[in-house]
Each structure stands twice: as C-alpha cells, then as structure tokens.
Write a structure and sequence with these properties.
- The structure holds two protein chains of two kinds.
- Chain A is α/β, with parallel strands linked by helices.
- Chain A folds into two domains: 130 residues, Nitrogenase molybdenum iron protein domain (Rossmann fold, 3-Layer(aba) Sandwich); 122 residues, Rossmann fold (3-Layer(aba) Sandwich).
- Chain A is built from twelve helices and ten strands.
- In chain A, the strands form three sheets. In chain A, strands 2-1-3-4 form a four-stranded parallel beta sheet, sandwiched between helices. A four-stranded parallel beta sheet of chain A has the order 7-5-9-10, covered by helices on one side. In chain A, strands 6-8 form a two-stranded antiparallel ribbon.
- Chain A is globular, with a radius of gyration of 20 Å.
- In chain B, α2 packs parallel to α14, α4 runs antiparallel to α14 and α6 packs antiparallel against α7.
- The longest helix of chain B has 36 residues.
- Chain B has a single domain, classed as ABC transporter involved in vitamin B12 uptake, BtuC, CATH 1.10.3470.10.
- Chain B is mainly α.
- The chains are: A alpha/beta, B mainly alpha.
- The interface between A and B is medium-sized, with 31 and 27 residues.
Chain lengths: 278, 349
C-alpha cells in the first residue's frame, strides 16, 4: 500500500509541467523527513515553514540549513495563516492536523517516511521534485544514491557479517527497517533475528551477549551517557565484548528518514566495514 | 529518671523473643533470594552453570552474564531493599507512627527530581557522582520540609497529607524538567524514574550507590537505643539523655543518604519501607531498636523477590520493579489505614 503513495503523488501532480509558467508553489512541511526532501529539492523562496524537529541535529541531516526557515508549531493554526500552496507531511503525523487542513481547503501531500525499499525512496525524491516544480533536480539526487548503492554492492558479498543495530535502551531495529534495507545492499546480516526480534523490539543485555553478533551498529560513539537509555550502551558487559573497534557508529540523522542522506549512510557503512576488515 | 530506665529495661526483656532464630531465618531467606536473583534472567542458565560462572568457571559469556549483569543487580536489590526497610523502621520509630515511610513522605520522588535535574542541566553523565549527591540533597530537603511543615508531634493524617503534597509536587516537577530538557525519548526515561528498575545495572551503579547507602545505614542503626527511649514518649526520652532534635536530624540524614543514593541508580521504588517493619513487628515485638535489623533484612528480601518476579512474569516488555512493589504496597497501606482508622479520626479532631 505504501508503495502506491508516491505514484499517487505523481498522478496528483500531472498538471504541474504544463503550468510551468505559473509561479512556483510555496510549500510547508510538517515532518522532519519531508523537511529534508524539501530543502534538497526546492528553491529557498518556496519553503515557507518546516516542522518543529527540523532544527534538531540528532534527527535532521539538514538541521543547520533549517535555521534559515520559519519553524512551524506542528499544529494547523500557523499553516493556515501562511496559506501555502501545498503542505507535505508524513503518513504518521497527527491525523487531526492533516484533516483539519484539508477541511480548510489546504492541499496536503503525504509521503511515506518509512519506505519499504530503496526504489521507493528514489520514487519519493522524484515525487517531491515534481511537486516543487523542479522535476530535473531529482536525477542528481537519485544518481548520488545509485552511486552509493553501487559502491556498497561492490564491497558486499565477501563474508556475511552479523550486525546488531542497537539503539538507546536496547531497542533493536529488525526486518523492514531502513537499517535492514541498508544492510541488504552491503551484504550484512541483521542479527536481530538471532535474538527473536522480528520487526523491532527491546533486547536485554544478557540476550545480546548470549547471541554474540559480530558487530554492533550504534548511533553514538561517545562516552557520555546523557540519560539512562544511552547509559545502557556503555554497560561494562557490553563494552567488554564490543569495544569501539567492534562498533560501527552511524548517526541517527542519517538513518531516520528515507532520503538523499541515505547515500551518506551507505558510504559511511562501507568505510566502517573497510576499516574493520583491515 | 530511674522510672524511665526501669521501663526501658522492661521493654528490652519483654521483647526478648527468639530474635536470633528470626534473624538467622531472614539471613537464610535473603541468601537464597540472592542466589535466585543470580539464577533468573532472559538467558536460561542452569543453577550449576550460574554457580560455576560466579566463581570464574565456564565460558566467558556465562561469566559476564552472571558476574557483570546479574551480580550487580542482586547486590543493588539487597542493598536498596535493606536501606528502604531500615529507613521505614527508623522513621516509624522516630515519629512513633506506623504509617511513616520514605515513599509516603515523598522522599524517593524528590530524589528522582534531584537526579533528573542533574541530567536535564546536561552537567553530568548519568553515571557520575553528581546524580546520587543531587538525589540525596533533594530527598533531605523533602523529608526535612515534611517534618518542618507537619511539626514534631504531628498526627498521622497531617503527615500523610503533607507527604502526598510533597510527592505529587516532586513527581510533577520531575516530568516537567524532562519535558523542558527536550529529550525526544522522554516517555521511556520518565517511566524509569517514576517506576524504578534494576534491569541491566552494572558495578558502576553499585559503586555509585553503595557507599552512601552504607553510611546512611550506619547512621540509622547507631540511633537504635534512642528509638527505644523515644518509644516511652519524648519527655521520658529527653530525661534519659536523648537529644530529640539531634535524633530527628540524624534520621533525616540517614534516610536521605540511603533513599537518595538508591533512587539515583534505580529510579523510584516505593512502599518497601512501609511494608517491611509491619511484617516484622509480629515476629520481633514492638521494640523499635530490635526492629531495625529484621526490617532491613525483610526489605532486602522483598525487593529481591519482587525483582525476581518481574523477570519470571511473562510479558512482552520488561515490567518495572516499582510497579510490583506498589501493587503490593498500596493495598497494604489501605489495610493499615483501615486498621488505624480510629487514631486517624482522632488526628482530625
């Protein structure tokens, strides 16, 4: 079902190329993932507001750039006042806000922020480029992603390494996550299945140590435990089996969203694997 | 004065039940629960494997699981349960009030606020000594404020109401601080601080908490004779040379040290301090001095048992141990209120 969303977007946008003479649409975003797609593909003048998390460097790859734009509240009020030509949002954003906007005659375009495949991500880039009236800008972004995928595939298939993607408080991303998509391209095996975790879940320290994945994938390589959730990753038992040399650090801002930044995520993954195989 | 001393002697002999046997039995139970705590976990290990791994045998994985994951958990369960039971018995002795306990006075909630404030300010790592120190200071302030507001000879009703106010305030302040700190994972962190958990602690946490808990326990235990004298009434105690003002301060310090340090590494675990002394009174009598050690052992047994139970009860995600202690503690508290209804009513008049 989620595959159909970008196609629906394309269908909706059928009219845009013919209307090229008209002024470019002014767009607001209510999701940290659509924020980043928008900043990659639209002219700055077209962006009239970004989501509340757009400036969070932990979540957004383009947090610094986002400071140039207006910060929206996440609710409907300020969007209505700004009268955008379209609002881009994720399909899991607050439904009430989207429905209210639609009732008020605002055009809301939903994007699948957890895409099922890398192809779906490319389709989203194409869809967003069409929406902002710059369809030609999709090709370079897609090409960048394709190049990274090619590099990843080139180094994959040597040996199936079992990697456990372990986030704060022991959350493990399983099958269907963006991480698993990246693993598939790099020939890595997600060790979540060894812990009995299907699509994602919490793992106990004991279970992780007993399953002994080859490598841990974490989002932070620091030694500062800002809260109890991060402290778990610095537990002595875990550090004993997984010192920094056995941890791949992939910042969360590269893997939260399906977008052009996944190219950087893949490149980083490849670089880390090359470092480890030495 | 001689009359007071005589009364004191009577209390001492009247309570001379087979206390040694009870203490031994409690020690045995705590020891068995410690072993149980080492034996239970998400990874199934046979009792023999666990014992072998504890003393350095078996595979590396088993050793790490038993020595670095389960052992600190069991030690923290023992130490924190004991200090909570001891704190409850000390507060009940100080106030001569069977409903006195750290959690009803808002001490753990205040301690959690202190710890969370340190994290939110971004000044300290959650594994630094800043956390227990802040938690200890906050719980000291809360118990001190409670006794100051309610007064030295406050009735039960007044203490409970003041305690309720302080714990609600501290709980709300904790959540507010976490919301302001804009941690995107705030809901999970709040659950930890509000409901308490011993899961996946390390020896680092033991080192953070244990010194403070030990000092707090020594302070409380050293005042046992004062509690006994106090049970005859404040004036008699003073005539026996007990400085009640100083005793009150020492108890507050002892409770704050123990509860604050415990909360800083495990979050809020409630009601053990209330329940443990009540379970022990029928066994060892009403002498508050002789109640301290059994209450500490009973508190340790209760927390160890609850922490074993949360690992055995099948669930999709981990049950917080504070949930279990509250599930047991709150009905017990209500039962105590029913039992003490008359004196509570008297407190109102």
């Amino acid at each position: 079902m989620s595959r159909r969303v970008p196609l629906a977007v394309l269908a909706l946008l059928g009219a845009i190329p013919q209307a090229a003479a008209q002024p470019l649409p002014r767009i607001a975003s209510t999701n940290v993932c659509t924020d980043q797609l928008l900043m990659t593909l639209a002219d700055p003048a077209q962006i009239i507001g970004l989501s509340p998390y757009s400036r969070d460097p932990a979540q957004s790859f383009a947090a610094a750039e986002a400071r140039r734009y207006r910060l929206l509240s996440g609710g409907a009020e300020d969007i209505l006042m700004l009268k955008p030509d379209a609002v881009v949002s994720g399909q899991y954003d607050k439904r009430a806000t989207r429905e209210l906007l639609r009732q008020q005659g605002v055009r809301v375009v939903e994007f699948d922020v957890v895409p099922p495949s890398l192809d779906a991500i490319k389709q989203q880039i194409v869809a967003m480029a069409a929406l902002v009236g710059h369809p030609e800008r999709a090709a370079p972004a897609v090409a960048r992603l394709d190049a990274s995928i090619a590099r990843a595939r080139a180094m994959a298939a040597h040996n199936p390494i079992r990697v456990l993607p372990l986030w704060r408080r022991g959350w493990v991303s399983g099958a269907g996550s963006l991480i698993s998509l990246l693993f598939a391209e790099t020939g890595l095996v997600n060790a979540a299945a060894d812990l009995g975790i299907a699509s994602g879940g919490f793992a106990s320290l004991e279970a992780i140590i007993a399953a002994r994945p080859d490598i841990l994938l974490v989002s932070d390589g620091g030694d500062f435990a800002e809260d109890e959730g991060t402290a778990l990753l610095l537990h002595p038992a875990l550090e004993r089996f997984y010192p920094p040399s056995k941890r791949i650090v992939l910042p969360e801002r590269l893997t939260v969203c399906g977008g052009a930044m996944l190219a950087d995520a893949l490149d980083l993954l490849v670089a880390e694997l090359t470092r480890m195989s030495r | 004065m001689t009359e007071g001393a005589q009364q004191l002697a009577t209390i001492e002999t009247a309570a001379a039940r087979p206390r040694g046997v009870i203490t031994l039995a409690l020690l045995l139970i705590v020891g068995l629960l410690m072993l149980g705590s080492l034996g239970v976990g998400p990874v199934r290990l046979s009792p023999l494997t666990v014992l072998g791994a504890l003393f350095g045998g078996g595979g590396e994985v088993e050793q790490v699981i038993v020595q670095q994951i389960r052992l600190p958990r069991a030690i923290l369960g023992l130490a924190i349960g004991a200090i909570l039971g001891l704190s409850g018995a000390a507060l009940q002795g100080l106030l001569r009030n069977p409903l006195a306990s750290p959690s009803l006075f808002g001490a753990p909630q205040a301690a959690a606020f202190g710890a969370v404030l340190m994290i939110a300010l971004g000044l300290a790592d959650v594994r630094s000594y800043a956390l227990p120190v802040a938690a200890i200071l906050a719980s000291f302030v809360s118990v001190f404020a409670l006794l100051a507001v309610a007064g030295g000879n406050a009735g039960m009703l007044l203490l409970i109401l003041a305690g309720l106010a302080i714990s609600s305030l501290a709980g709300a302040a904790t959540v507010l601080v976490m919301n302001l700190a804009s941690n995107p994972y705030v809901a999970l962190e709040i659950a930890f601080w509000m409901l308490g958990s011993l899961e996946d602690r390390s020896f680092h946490h033991v080192m953070l908490a244990l010194p403070f808990i030990a000092i707090g326990a020594l302070i409380l235990f050293s005042q046992r004779h004062a509690f006994r004298a106090l049970s005859l009434g404040e004036e008699t105690a003073q005539s026996l040379g007990v400085d009640v003002g100083r005793l009150r301060l020492l108890v507050i310090i002892g409770v704050a040290l123990g509860v604050g340090a415990g909360v800083a590494v495990t979050g809020t675990i409630g009601f053990i301090g209330l329940v443990a002394p009540h379970l022990m009174r029928p066994l060892v009598g009403h002498d508050p001095a002789k109640l301290l050690l059994p209450s500490a052992l009973c508190g340790a047994a209760l927390l160890l048992a609850a922490d074993i139970a949360v690992r055995i009860i099948p669930s999709s995600s981990d049950i917080k141990v504070g949930v279990l202690t509250s599930l047991i503690g709150v009905p017990f508290f209500l039962y105590l209120i029913v039992r003490e209804r008359r004196s509570l009513g008297g407190g109102m008049a």
